[in-house]
Amino acid sequence: MIQPTLLNRTLIRFNLIEKVRAWRVGIPIMLFMGLPCYMMLISVIDSTEPEAAAKNVWNIFNNASIYFLLAYLFISDGLLTGRPTGEPETLNLLFTRPITRTCYVLSKFFCGFVGSTTVLSISVALTFGVATALGIVENPIDSPFILSIIFNCLSFSAFYVFLHSMPSLLGLVSYLFFSGCQTVGEIMSIGYSSSAPTFFKYVKDAILFFNYWFGDVFPSCVDFSLIASSYYACTELIVVYLSNLSLFLFLAILSLSIREFSYGSD
Amino acid sequence: MSIITVDNLSKHFRRAKIKAVQDVSFCVETGEIFGLIGPNGAGKTTIMACLLALIKPSSGQIKIDGKSPYDFDVKPLIGFLPERPCYNRWMNIHQFLTYHHMLAGMPAKDREKDIKEALEAVELEVDPKKRRVKELSRGMLQRVGLAQAIIGKPKIVFLDEPTSGMDPLGFIMIRKMLLRFKEQGTTAIVNSHHLLEVEKVCDRIAFIRGGKIEHLGSMDSFALQGQDVSLSWLPLASKNSDEIDVLLGELALKHDCKIIESTQESAKVSSPDKEHLAQFIQELIANNLMVYEAKSERRELVDLFLNKGENQ
Amino acid sequence: MARIKKGKSTLYIPIFVTLAMALLLVGRIYIKGPFQTLLNPDAQIGWKTLGDLDRDKDSYHSSLILYDFSADWCQPCKRMDKVTFQASDVVQKVREGFYPVKVIVGDAHEKKSVTDLQTKYSLYSIPTFVVTLPGGEWVYQKRGFFPPKDFIKMLDNAKAKAYFVRAELKLAKQDYKGALAELDPNVLSGKKTIEDEIPILVYFHTLKMLGRLDEAKAMVKKRFDFVYSKKKGAIQANAKSLPWPLPFYQYLLGEIDQDKLNNASTVWYQKADINSAIALDALASNKKDIALKSFHKAAESAYYSSSDSFRLAELFIKELEP
């Protein structure tokens, strides 16, 4: 008799192996692996300051969109089907099979995490090889760097699983809401006016409220090398980070449990 | 023994403000082929979705093999053919069947054999590794879906509109499959408005309209409900067609019958039961109509239900 | 694989997920809510206000002024407070040689002086960090969030550049020996190279006025050769004119005349470099009115008050203006 598990073998096999064998996912993954070392090659060869150029290339691994895209590649079927949201209707059939909603969410999360970490570690290794071959001595591959990559993969996979488990519209709205809350602080710091009318002050206060409480829900890249020196920042970041991770997984499972998969027009 | 029991099942969709299913109760015996029929929008698919734990009932209770449909242990017993083909379109047929074989928790060593058997059962003659699901026609998709439904060797099979998009060969294949279920003792719940296969194979049928079961019983119990007869007589010189119409009308009223259509030499009559019909024919002959043929017409299930709807 | 013993429902949510979520959510609200009020992020560095700046005029004459343009609604500013300004090495560095002033943009009490500063240092977004000499001469400016490591590097750069700005000040007052004392001996001895045009001009002019023209020319020649070898491809593709900044070096080396230099570039900030070079040349041959005119042109072309060429022009204009 089959027993409930936390991770599902089938989902892992199909998301990590079978999917990558399809060229639509395979080629982007090859690009993710190959592009950083290619960029290292061309930017260092063509540069008057190879060390600075190399540092710039290493900054790629601190870019949130890379993690988001990788999580998307491994969790969603979007690229394979040509529809950005993938195929949410296949869940109808899937949930008539012996699989719990928790297991589904955790398996997808696991695939996103393992997939993106694998791709990025190969990418880092290749880039490191090219940099060393070009005579760059100062490569930032230390434990904070590797930890940052792993933590980013975790948080972005959890976030994407959360979006993936929501009904399409709600997922899109929550994506826009959280990313908006995060961006609004930075936007306000670019164009400011010291003489705004009172009404806008209230609007500003409201925006600030959302920015303060929800601005850090949308995952941003963790960089351990930055915060190691500040005890307060470290504590806050870790609590917020873990809280995000568990919140996303919990909401994903909850959303799938509440959702009704009425598949017919009946 | 009942493998599925449904007690006072109701489902209201709050947003659309429809009571899709109201107070439905029935049970399905082990090894039975159970038909859910009714017009579009009757609530058949909602009932099925409740049975599959895809949507939550507003009230009422469902037991499958003595457990809740949400129970993990119920899931390995189930095979399901969805109405709309919601399959992972990027996989090829072999991958798709492997996916569901693995999900159903079947042993890996039997996989190739099981896939081959399932494909043979649905009479799909393509190379499963070369054709992708998204390249298949509607009928072929339906066959792949059927193969998927039976790949986990389920004890209960839910078939939602199994014949949609199928050619006549497909109809025969489905009938064969249902008969095989009967042999194997597999319970099947068939949701359909194409009644050909349902009439011939189903042990019992529940007719659903407006979210309620209007009739539940064996095929025969449906047929007994009414009698249609085509009558023909020799041309009559003494009466013109108007007089014949008047005569037919009077007699029909007297014997609770209904004239569906009439000409000068023939008529189609519907009567509530055999006694009334016999008396009607007897009086026709007594009125000098030389009846030479009375042909019983068995009603199609759908016609019956349509009439019922009109009566209401 | 792990097995769930309890809960055979397919909707079962494991207790550890729920518990972890709830605990961390409470922790998060605490750390962002009540915990915040226990902290005083400004205490570490000891930020001063603009009012303090006016009052303390005599006490900070030897240090540099570090302005932090910030606002309560600016997220990166808050991150600076929480992360960078909490780091002990940053705090130490700031205390060592800077007079830190926090300017709250949009502050109603000091609106006028804040707006003045914004105009003076061409501020367009926050957080911005501006380093000036005690007299208000612009030295260095950076915008955005900086982690501790980068912020320290920035402060070091500002400190190094402050010497250079002091040299400019002395140069404008025609105290050439004093200017030479402020300049980097490593550059003078050829151990280190400098890249930007204005610093090269200042070094060149100082040496020239002290009668060490050969040394100055050697320095420029070295830089010229280096850039020439780097831009070989571009030079071969366009034989007619040399790419910027090679004409600038050629002018300093005496290989081309003023007209040719004037035609070498039309880009505004490069025009500012050209005019500064011409003005300093005029000053060397004691044609003060031509120099003043060229410096005015340079300041106009530089446009942004936060640039080396603008500052250089401004310093000289201040001295030359009758």
Order of helices and strands of chain B: EEEHEEHHHEHEHEEHEHEEHEH
Major sheet of chain C: order of its strands? 2-1-3-4
Structural class of chain C: alpha+beta
**Order of adjacent strands in the largest pleated sheet of chain B:** 5-6-7-3-8-9
Task: Summarize model confidence as the mean pLDDT of chain C.
Answer: 82
Alpha-carbon Rg of chain C, integer: 26 Å
Q: Can you count the beta strands of chain C?
A: 4
What is the global morphology of chain C?
Answer: elongated
Shape of chain B: elongated
Amount of helix of chain B: 25-40%
Radius of gyration of chain B: 25 Å
CATH topology (fold) name of the largest domain in chain B: Rossmann fold
What does this 3D model show about the protein?
The complex is a heterotrimer of chains A (266), B (312) and C (322). Helix content of chain A is 73%, strand content 0%. Chain A has twelve helices and no strands. In chain A, helix 7 (101-133) runs antiparallel to helix 8. The longest helix of chain A has 33 residues, at 101-133. Chain A starts with 8 loop residues before the first helix and ends in an 8-residue tail after the last helix. The model of chain A has no long low-confidence stretch (mean pLDDT 85). In chain B, helix 5 links the parallel strand 6 (156-160) and strand 7. Chain B starts with a strand and ends with a helix. By secondary structure, chain C is an alpha+beta fold. Chain C is built from 17 helices and four strands. Chain C has helices spanning 15-32, 34-38, 50-55, 75-82, 88-97, 111-120, 148-172, 176-182, 185-188, 197-209, 213-230, 232-237, 246-252, 258-264, 268-284, 288-302, 308-320; strands at 64-70, 98-104, 128-132, 138-143. Chain C has a four-stranded mixed beta sheet. Mean pLDDT of chain C is 82; it is low at 1-5. The chains are: A mainly alpha (266), B alpha/beta (312), C alpha+beta (322). Chains in contact: A-B, A-C, B-C.
Give a topology summary:
The complex is a heterotrimer of chains A (266), B (312) and C (322).
Chain A: H1 9-21, H2 23-45, H3 50-58, H4 64-75, H5 78-81, H6 90-94, H7 101-133, H8 143-165, H9 168-190, H10 198-214, H11 224-227, H12 231-258
Helix pairs in contact in A: 1-7, 2-3, 2-4, 2-7, 4-7, 4-8, 7-8, 7-12, 8-9, 8-12, 9-10
Chain B: E1 2-13, E2 18-29, E3 33-37, H1 44-51, E4 59-64, E5 78-81, H2 93-103, H3 111-121, H4 138-150, E6 156-160, H5 168-184, E7 187-192, H6 195-201, E8 204-209, E9 212-218, H7 219-223, E10 227-233, H8 241-254, E11 258-262, E12 266-271, H9 274-286, E13 291-297, H10 301-311
Parallel strand pairs in B: 3-7, 3-8, 5-6, 6-7
Antiparallel strand pairs in B: 1-2, 1-4, 8-9, 10-12, 10-13, 11-12
Helix pairs in contact in B: 2-3, 3-4, 5-6
Chain C: H1 15-32, H2 34-38, H3 50-55, E1 64-70, H4 75-82, H5 88-97, E2 98-104, H6 111-120, E3 128-132, E4 138-143, H7 148-172, H8 176-182, H9 185-188, H10 197-209, H11 213-230, H12 232-237, H13 246-252, H14 258-264, H15 268-284, H16 288-302, H17 308-320
